[in-house]
Amino acid sequence: MSEAIIKIQNMNKWFGDFQVLKDINLEVEKNKKIVVCGPSGSGKSTLIRCINRLEEHQKGSIVVDGTELSENTKNIEQIRAEVGMVFQQFNLFPHLSILDNCTLAPIWVRKMPKKQAQELAMQQLEKVQISDQAQKFPGQLSGGQQQRCAIARALCMEPKIMLFDEPTSALDPEMIKEVLDAMVNLAKGGMTMIVVTHEMGFAKEVADEVIFMDEGMIVEKAETKEFFANPKSDRTKLFLSQIL
Amino acid sequence: MSKFTFLKSDRSNIQLVLITGTFLITISILDVFLNSFFKLNLISFLPSKVSFLTPFIIGMIGLNLIRIEYSGNKFLDVLNKNINTSNFNAALTLLIIFIIFKAIPPSLSWMILDANISGDTKEACTGTGACWTYIKVWFRRFMYGMYPNEQHWRINTAFLLVIGLGTFGLFATEKMKKFLALYYVVIYPIIAFLIIYYLISGGYFGLEWIETGAWGGLSLTFIVSFFCLIFCFPLGMILALGRRSNLPAVRYVSIGYIEFWRGVPLITVLFMSSVMFPMFLPEDFFMDKLVRVIIAITLFEGAYCAEVIRGGLQSLPRGQYDAAKSLGMGYWKMHIFVILPQALKLVIPGICNTFLALVKDTPLIFVVGLAELAGMLALAKTNPKWLGFAMEGYIFAAIIFWIICYAMSKYSYNLEEKYKTDR
User: What is the complex's ipTM, to 2 decimals?
Assistant: First the structure.
């Protein structure tokens, strides 16, 4: 059993008076793939945004790759560099070409020479099959292509962990597949992944564990087969009956 | 009944309607045209009040007649779509044509036909029109102020050098592009200042020293605008970022600064800079009046720039910040590479607006005794030898300012086009 790369203990988070996350406990081991699902507003996105501290938690502890995240964390940028993230709205930089989107952070954060960064970017773009679009701007690409570029951009930082925040929710049905394919390939390559998604097919295919959240709590956490075969809580059963 | 169908335009009677309509419109426009250009009145047989309105009424009927949907005639369709969609539109079209016809002859004759430009005294102006002799005689003053005539080459050379250095960015190679921002924000202003200081102010290298009080005219407008523009932009950027900062001290200082400078009129700021400010300085410390004025305008306009840039920063979606942060970028990297390039692109029209206002505010420095273009006009029009030519002067100044401002706004459109990428 390998060591946990993400360790969350008794984590609580409030937006004003509203408690979004309640007593979250979660350990993610290296190379594991976790799928987080649940109804909207259940705190899934907030949970993974806390892992790279795009949101701050108020209570409990989060340890990522041996470093605890807190107000006193000086090197938050270094941790974020190790944690790639893909967003629902892609969030590509519209003023930069696809290639520049991918090389920006490696050059300025990782201090990689420009040429090396471009080679790396082309490799990653090749993997998600949009290397032919490298010179275009994000606005000229379809949603699916943009999301694949966003995945490549995150991978260019060679992160240890990848977070996916509903990566297919803003896409047309026929584009979902191309993005999921890219994610499946990534999973097979051994990346540690936490994926918030409603794509249960994807969960069944690659996830080691599935977490079901509701109202800010982890309601159920089980191995994938177990989770779909015999869910324990009634809330999970109801959710699965609606989504499958 | 037959008359009724005649007035109803459709494709069946298109020939008839078109000919009648065109005839009526031509008559109406011709009447105004002849009346205004040749003092002829086609319909003088009518009582004067009726004849005044006749062209308009005839024109309206004509336009009403030719208003046919899908006539099949391409030209007519374009015409109808653009200037003749409704009665209101038709009336506006006619009125605009009439106003142009009425306005051209008098202004033309005043500005060109009856104007004088020969000679070099007031007496040469014998015509009833404008006296451009006045502008001609005073031209050097309007351009260079009280700067001695034989030294004007110094101003010209300095300007050419500054403009030349400003085009450096066009020739920069790929490798130097990284440093362009640094060049334009820090190095270029310093070099420009040194050029202007040593060449125009003089006192070194055998050049005669000429105090800033003697500077003036359009060249002073340029100097003041130039320095204020290049300094107020970075200042505004810093203030805009400061106002959005998470650090309370930085934020409140920025807010305080912006609200203070936006709350006081420029004219009081200028007065303070020249009258009050020296009182707070140590006795032996001297700062030139022109420098004080430039600093005052820069600080003032910086606050406006800040708010324009802040508008751009706020219009960026939060996802851009998230994405930059998630890639491990810190505050400065995130802003320099991701946020500012997008925000600044969005605020080009707003910044251009502020800059135009700045250029047109420069005449206010007259209140502290610096006479740029408009200031020189005010001096010239009170010269006893040349009384009574204020009109020519102000029209001249208006044209010059318009050219400057139009060039700036054109340039800003170009920038917008250049940096346009689809979102």
Answer: 0.91
